[in-house]
Design goal:
Elements (H helix, E strand, L loop, with lengths): L4 H13 L3 H15 L4 E8 L4 E7 L11 E2 L4 H8 L4 E3 L2 H5 L5 H6 L4 E9 L2 E10 L6 H22 L7
Antiparallel strand pairs: 1-2, 1-6, 2-3, 4-5, 5-6
Helix pairs in contact: 1-2, 1-6, 2-6
Length: 168
């Protein structure tokens, strides 16, 4: 069993010093690396009023830059993450390919498993934490750890990075 007290304390300290969205998500990335592990990390915000999503943070700006918006796609992934508010988990590149059209790039980056953790505030989905690693990395234990140890810190990082966000 992993001891999360050190990484959580480090996250708390880093978040308390964060003065930008990037610094808040840098702290969340460090916590994720120290707990469940991650090779590629992004945070997507979602605006269901406009049905758009936006990558607001990335660990790999060359491959996955922070820019623009994309339309929300109503598919199996949407049902799991947006409607059911559960983690989407895939542990092979073939499974990832069934929902992500950029699966070839994901594979070239050495990733073949994913967890998409929904971030919900005020009963509204505001974003997802997207963690990718090598195939079969996200075991049932790691998925449970992500839910237990990253859900509240993800909300804190989101709020620190969006200080004027109204939660209704």
């Amino acid at each position: 069993m992993t001891d999360f007290n050190g990484p959580l304390a480090a996250f708390d300290h880093a978040l308390s010093l964060a003065t930008s969205r990037a610094a808040a998500f840098d702290a969340l990335l460090a916590l994720t690396r120290a707990t469940v592990g991650v090779k590629l990390f992004t945070f997507m915000t979602v605006d269901m009023a406009t049905e758009t999503a936006r990558r607001s943070y990335t660990s790999h700006p060359e491959a996955y830059p922070v820019s623009g918006t994309k339309p929300v796609t109503y598919d199996r992934w949407f049902k799991i993450v947006h409607t059911d508010r559960e983690c989407f988990v895939a542990n092979t590149l073939a499974d990832i390919a069934t929902v992500f059209p950029d699966f070839e790039l994901i594979g070239r980056l050495g990733c073949g498993s994913v967890i998409n953790l929904p971030v919900v505030l005020g009963d509204t989905l505001v974003g997802t934490v997207n963690m990718l690693h090598e195939e079969d990395h996200y075991t049932a234990e790691r998925v449970a750890q992500a839910k237990a140890w990253l859900s509240v810190p993800a909300k804190a990082a989101y709020l620190a990075g969006h200080p004027h966000q109204q939660v209704t």
